[in-house]
Amino acid sequence: MDSSDRPAEFSVAWLNAYLGARLGLGVTALSLAKFPRGTSRETWFGAYLDAHGTRQEIVLRADHPSGSTDPTPLNQEYFIYQRLGGVGLPVARALWWEDDSRVAPRPFYIREKIDGDWRVPHYADPSPAYDSLRIAVAREHIAAIAKLHEADWRGLGLGERLAVPPNAAEAARSYVATVRARIGSASAEPTPIFLEACEWLTDHAPPAVRLTLCKGTNGLGEEVFRDGKLVALSDWEEVSIGDPASDFAFMQGFAEPIISGGQQIWGMEHALAAYAELSGTEIPLASVNYYRVVRAMNLAVLARNAAVIAHTQAGQAHIRQVWTGTEVYHVCRRVLASAMGLVPPIPASLFDELNQSVDMR
């Protein structure tokens, strides 16, 4: 495939030619379809028959034609899959990275597809009959996060791409400094509340109980389940080395309160207790609440990038980027202002809604 034949978009025909060039004759692409969800980047699901006639399932990840709202590069996401796949964690193996403009519409990587679904049957059903299911699935996810936190990030060389705090006491300040550096990565109108929030978060930074590899965005909608079991941790765009409390603040759908018979039988406190039982590490709830504000800051940066894309590339911007650059951007700034006491307190539920408002996959 030469530059004159370069397609304007990914397709089955393109996949067939690409796999043929990479894997040789006898490979046949069967399908390639874009997943409709996702604000920061595109996800495509594909399948092909290898030279032995065996069906293989793959996932292709690329930035939107208008660009990614995520401030981290796509090849960092590939790097994480490359280092974590095949080391005993439920993480898909990375297959190929491609940035040759002669053979593809834009840079992408391909990883294996693990059989399963981000949806868990009946999890969202409000019937109390499924309370035990919700708690079991949440515990399953927490067990996977606890295992991730035990990963030898130094031995895996993750410090080659991720910022490493000088020590546990400086973990939060280091993270805020990283976020602050990302604020200036997009050209947009000044947003004074960002700098105010950075100073506030720096002044109120709690020490970490230890330094671990932290997944970032995680929880319902970000992982792959099969038969109620977690089979793959997905979405590594906000991965970091830092305070494990951040993974509970960035968690979606698995630490919300469950009330039965007038009593709360599950919630963040229960999730932290389950983690402590598994890991031997007690995470202060105050640290989780601190990182909820950091989460709002992270999403504000993403939303600001989306606003820039919507403004400068109106003809190509994805509708979700337009929504993120307006509604989510407003909510993020409101959360930050409330946390710092600049506006009246807002409902705590807004933090949870914000946590689930942007699907990062």
Describe the structure.
The protein is of the alpha+beta class and 361 residues long. It has a domain at 3-112: Phosphorylase Kinase, domain 1. The chain is built from ten helices and 13 strands. The chain has helices spanning 12-23, 74-84, 131-149, 171-183, 192-203, 245-249, 268-279, 285-312, 319-339, 349-357; strands spanning 28-34, 41-49, 55-63, 94-98, 108-112, 212-214, 218-219, 223-226, 229-233, 240-242, 251-252, 258-260, 263-266. The chain has a five-stranded antiparallel sheet, sandwiched between helices. It has a two-stranded antiparallel ribbon with strand order 6-10. Strand 2 and strand 3 form a beta hairpin. Helix 4 (171-183) runs parallel beside helix 8, helix 5 (192-203) packs antiparallel against helix 8 and helix 9 (319-339) runs antiparallel to helix 10 (349-357). The longest helix is centred in the last third of the chain and has 28 residues, at 285-312. It is globular. The two termini are 29 Å apart. The mean pLDDT is 91.
Report a brief summary of the structure:
39% of the residues lie in helices and 17% in strands. With 361 residues, it is α+β, with helices and mostly antiparallel strands.
